[in-house]
Every structure is written in C-alpha cells, then in structure tokens.
Amino acid sequence: MKTILDSLVQAFRLITSLNGEIYGIIALSLVVTILSTVISGALAVPSGMIIGSREFKGKKLLTRLISTFMGLPPVVAGLIVYLFLSRKGPLGSLGMLFTPAAMVIAQVLIIYPVITGITIGVVRAKVQPVRETCAGLGIGGWRMLLLLFHECRYSVMSAIIAGYGRAISEVGAVMLVGGNIQFYTRVMTTAIVLETGKGNYDRALALGIILLVISFIINWMLQRIQEST
Amino acid sequence: MRVELINLKRYFNEKKALDIDRLLIESGKVYAVLGPNGSGKSTMLRILAGFDRDFSGSVCYNGMEKLQYNCISYMPQSIYMFDFTVLENVLLGFGRGRIDRSDALSRVKAALGFVGMDGFSNAKARSLSGGEAQRVALARTLVLGRDLVLLDEPSSATDITGVGLAEKYIRSVNSKDGSTIVFTTHNPSQAARIADEVIMMHSGRIVEIGSPQQIFDSPKEQETRDFLRNWRI
Fold first, then answer.
1. Residue A136's closest CA among B27, B150, B100, B162?
2. pTM
3. What is the ipTM of this complex?
4. In this complex, which of B72, B80, B95 lies closest to A133 when CB atoms are compared?
5. Dist. CA B84–CA B107, nearest whole Å
6. How far apart are CA B168 and CA B189, in angstroms?
7. Whose CB among A119, B47, B111, B210 lies 3.0–4.6 Å from B214's, allowing a Cys bridge?
C-alpha cells in the first residue's frame, strides 16, 4: 500500500518536474500509438467494410485468418517486423530497425487485424437491411458503402478505440523493434519494464499511473467525438 | 413497365418456394398479390426486384432480361430507417445530381404530406414508431415515381388512417406517374380497394388471377375459397 501511495506522489512529481526525458517518453508514446492507430484505421476500416459487405471466394478463410491475427502476440508481431527490418532482412537496406518508424510498423501489424475484425462483425450485422433498402431505392456501389459506413460509424469508432487501447498497452513489439533506446525509442511501456528491472518499483508504478491517465484522457476524447457525431 | 415471368422456379434447400408457369404484369396497372403466409408472395417480389437471382426460368422487363438502371423501386417487408431525419431518408433515392434539389425537396414534402407525415420532416427517423416508419418508407419508395414499384406489405403495421392515406397515395402514383405497382397483402379488402388485378397465390403457385370482383365474388379455385373463407369486410 505504501509503495502505491509513494508511486502516486512520485507520478505527480514526475509530471510536474519538467523532466525532459519523461516528457520525451510521453510524447513518443503518444506519437507512436496515435500514428499507428491512424494508419491502421485508414487501412482497416475500408478493408473491414469491403470484406464485411461483399461476398467472394475465400471470404470465410480470410475472416478466420483475421480473427486469428486479432490475438497475435505482440512479441511475434515484433519478431516478424524485426526479421524484415534487420540488416539481413528484405527491408534491411532501409535502416529502419530501432527507430520510431519501426515501432509504428509493428503496432500497425498488431492493431490492423483488431480494427478490421471488429469492423467486419459490425458491418455483417448491418449490411443486409442497408443493402436491401439501398437497392430498393436504386442506390448501389460506393454510395451504398458510404451509407453503410454512416450506419456503422459508432461501432467503427469503438473498433478504433479498441485498437488504440491495444497499441498504448503494448510492450513486446516496441521493445524488440525499437530497442528501448534512451531519448530515441523509449516509450512508457518499455520504460516501465526497464525501471522494474532496475528495482525502481515506485518510478515504474508512477509511469504506469501516467500511462493510465493518458490512456483515460485519449479514450475519453475519442468517446466524446463518438458521442458528438 | 411490362413484366413477364416464364417457367419460374425457386428452391430453398430443395423445398420448392416458387413455381410459376407464366405471369404477365401489364404496364400501368396495380396488382395485389394475395395469399397465406409462406405462399411465395415476398419471394416473387424479391425476384421481380432483382435481389434474388437464384432461380430458374426467366423474368423479362419490357421484353428484356436485363434490368435497366433506376427503373424499379422496392419497399421490403422489414423497414430500415437510416440514421438521418425523416426528410433526408425520403430524399435518399434521388441521389446527387440526378434531379434539381429544390424539385426533389418539394416532391419529398408532397410525398410526406400524402402519407400524413409532413409534420415529422425534421424528426429523427429512428425515433418513429413502426407504423410511422412504414409510412415514411412508403413515401420514400413511391416518391421516386419509377416505372415498376414493388411494395411488400406496405401497410401491415399502419393504423386505419395511415392505411387509407397509403392506399390513396398508391393509386395517385399509379395514375399520375403511370407506375406499374405490385404489392403483397394478407388483406383481401385492401386488394379490393386499390388493385386492378389480384394474383392469388398458394404454396408457391399462382392459383388464380383476375379482377378483384372476379376473384372475390366468384373464386374458381378451392385454395382461393379456403383463403377467403374467414374474410370479413
């Protein structure tokens, strides 16, 4: 109990300390998670809409694969990206390993199936009445898809929130491909792992509390957007 | 629009749902498709609308098997209202650029007036009751003035006033726009009030076709007599 109380005090001190490293860690965490969520959302929502609303050969298999990847262990995603970006890997020449860009790629790999999978489920529940009503009015193609998106928008927003939640809490992949380099690729979750390893439990817990507060604020903001649309 | 169904068969899991040797729907008439539950009324309407293509036989629209773009409007049995206002819902079928917006707006307002929903223009469509939503859906389908209008139980959830308005509107669209209208109903009285022709169906087959007077006053087939046995005007 004492450790938790100390951590709360420590968290408050860390936030108000104007410590450049802490602010850098917080900023990088936000940049990496928000960027990966935006990229994943931009890719996953249209693909989820198309997969959920169209019938094609191999749809069941594709849906099952996406469902499987929804539970992809972050460390495995990190390993895949690591192998691709490592010096001997196919994309090694890009020199992206141990950079924030590599962390974003790894997180996109983790979040994309989550947002796609949820979007497919949401669209599947709405597509039949929307398609039938649209067809009855002579609406088809892209306009039908846009209307379908409009009808699913709240649930799609929830899918994006779920994706963001997975990104902000993720540690394995960003640790592998980012390398937890001080002042460069260290984010909140990797910093917590480091501080715990060093035995600085109060500092680790303080960072955890900051992470929770940030996560709460972002989720609250996203839900506000969801409610106002 | 003249529609001809020839040797049409539709199966659901090896169960024959529709078996029509020939049916001619003549241009500019109002047809009531009458029959008990499961007689194939909705299946036939879905095939006519082009939604269900999993059938054998042929459906010809003005002599062609290919359905021309935007010549049909269809109102399904289960109503879906988009998360817009009532006015926006009824405007949907006009699309963008197909018709002058002010012209579309005045037509939509008139359509809502026809079904007694003009006071609900700015209401959220999702907040409507089942009967009100059905009236709005009818306006949304009929306002387009398409050549062939297909209505699957267009007033099954509507109150007596609403039914009267709906029937008047159906007849008005038929006479003003010249639309061919096919609607399904369980109610022989409704068929008698607005249809030029009644198509009597039973177990996926057309058992009898004729004017309401012919069908109701002197039914030829046993299935028709059985169906009308419990009818009270």
1. B150
2. 0.85
3. 0.89
4. B80
5. 18
6. 14
7. B210
